[in-house]
Specification:
12-stranded mixed beta sheet; 14 strands; 30% helix; binds S-adenosylmethionine
Length: 333
């Protein structure tokens, strides 16, 4: 990421350069580890940030040194006119990179637009390569669309990261086949520890599959898997199987081993700023915008929030007023 622009540092000396922006809380899948079967009560549209508000927030943050915006949700492509918004976002001075996290169900038809907008990286969530297991996890029979989307994204030359949450009794059979995708394709397959953001509160998952155990499992099939150098600010531990095109990442999302270099903040679909995934929201930006705050005042509010960041996800979780219970779809995973 370019360092020619001014950067803002938090109270622990970490630069804030990366915004994860949830454009909706709605989703067309019902992944059991993310939300209950009947879904979560969606917010009325006027309680969500409008595209105009998102553009304003992004412009103010770009002025503070944010260079990368990841579009997430909910499922970004269920929000109308997403690509129109992305064209506008890409015009903001200072925003050098737009990335997207998607489940791939509706994504395929937008591929030409995404190319034109200049999106280079797409994270595709895909927990299983088996249609029945995919259905059992997501409660929707959409595997074939997601699989087709994966190959079309690769064909179109995007840098594709496949994200798979690793879950006891659900998709352990998929770990080796997913890793095998990296043999022929220049894809990054990332295995993620399951986190407690399931919208139920009642079951705080026991972490059966730590990043260490995931790695040990991969080594049973690929004993010569090699550690690679991790890019700066990366949340993943990177590996490669010798001779394979792509690489493998393991993300210790629950163990939280990467907080020391965290350069990211989150904006939820209803406009709450989170300076850590595990906090319960530190500023109601939507409310400030709707009370006609000026850009200068908003800039100062952001600076104040960045100067009060918890040092890691454990401290953030301790400071919460309620225990972790919310669905990832409301946070912007
Ligand atoms: N709908 C988009 C998608 O599926 O990629 C973006 C939003 S989704 C909430 C973002 C990511 O969060 C997905 O990769 C999903 O697997 C992950 N996620 C959701 N709940 C999770 C949990 N409890 N633990 C770990 N990852 C989770």
């Amino acid at each position: 990421m370019s360092t020619t622009h001014p950067l803002i540092y938090d109270n622990h000396g970490r630069p804030i350069q990366y915004l994860r922006l949830a454009v909706t809380d709605r989703c067309n899948l019902r992944c059991f580890y993310c939300m209950p079967e009947e879904g979560i009560p969606y917010l009325p549209k006027k309680q969500l940030l409008s595209y105009e508000e998102m553009l304003r927030i992004s412009t103010v943050l770009a002025g503070l040194g944010v260079r990368k915006v990841r579009i997430t949700g909910g499922e970004p492509f269920v929000r109308h006119d997403l690509t129109k918004f992305l064209y506008q976002l890409s015009d903001i001075e200072g925003i050098e990179e737009i990335a997207i996290t998607t489940n791939g169900v509706l994504t395929q038809k937008y591929i030409p637009d995404l190319k034109k907008i200049g999106v280079k990286t797409i994270n595709l969530s895909l927990d299983s390569l088996d249609r029945q297991r995919f259905y059992d996890i997501t409660r929707r029979d959409e595997f074939t669309k997601v699989e087709a989307c994966l190959y079309e994204l690769l064909e179109a030359g995007f840098e594709v990261k496949v994200n798979a949450v690793v879950m006891e009794g659900r998709n352990i059979e998929d770990l080796i086949p997913l890793a095998q995708l990296t043999e022929k394709y220049p894809v990054s397959v990332r295995f993620i520890e399951e986190m407690p953001f399931n919208g139920e509160g009642s079951h705080y998952p026991i972490l059966h599959w730590t990043y260490r155990r995931i790695l040990d499992h991969l080594k049973t099939e690929f004993p010569d898997i090699q550690k690679q150098i991790d890019p700066l600010n990366s949340t993943a531990y990177h590996y490669q199987i010798p001779g394979f095109e792509g690489n493998i990442g393991i993300i210790a999302a629950f163990s939280r081993t990467f907080c020391g270099t965290c350069n990211r903040i989150r904006m939820t679909a209803q406009g709450t700023l989170k300076t850590c995934l595990y906090d319960d929201g530190v500023m109601d930006v939507r409310d400030l915008l709707r009370k006609d705050i000026s850009d200068e005042e908003l800039t100062l509010k952001f600076i104040q929030a960045f100067r009060n960041r918890p040092k890691d996800g454990y401290e953030a979780e301790q400071l919460r007023s309620t225990s972790v219970h919310e669905s990832m779809t409301t946070i912007g995973g």
